[in-house]
Amino acid sequence: MSAQFYVSPEQLMKDRADFARKGIARGRSVVVLGCREGIALVAENPSGSLRKVGELYDRIAFAAVGKYNEFESLRQAGVRYADTRGYSYAREDVTGRGLASVYAQSLGAVFTADSKPFEVELAVVEVGDSQASDHLFRLNFDGSIADEPGVIIMGGDAETISASLNEAWGGDAAADQGFAGAIRAAAAALPGVPDGPEGAAMLEVAVLDRDPQVLRGRRRCFRRLDKNELAVILAA
Asked: Is the entire prediction scored with pTM above 0.70?
């Protein structure tokens, strides 16, 4: 019979947290910025098929870093939850806060009960009628949740990206910029993205647009930017 070793709950939680943080830090970064026109989601992602940014519902989007199979399963679960709740009750009952709470419960349960935590970090963002009514929720691997004031940086060397972003996206002037300014600021802060239009090949970008004129009356606010549109923005 093999000997049984005791590990304190504190040490077990610490080991799991360290394991998850290392996995997340190896992932390419994502920057989410609130601006005058809505919310921009900018991911360092050279893949044309494996998405790190996606739509959850009418005004709500999702971004993630870490293990693709884990955060993709969470994204799909969020879409199912939103569709079911919107169909059973009303579309207005589907909120970013509600989706973030569901994700927090799932991540917390996996972190405490399963043998391996999810190596993911998530952002659930909801665009409002004004910049003051936007909601940007950041969720950690252990289920902790925070409502961030206009900026979320996830994955990679977040501290370095934050310092670089503060130089280009600080003060009152940043709040008055549109999507183009937000995308250029995020791209400049990401260390793996080349300067100029060449950087478009390394980026995955989507926006939640609060302007109904741009959406031609559609209810959905989410739209992706293709590589040609990105190259034009980055060349400016």
From this structure: yes
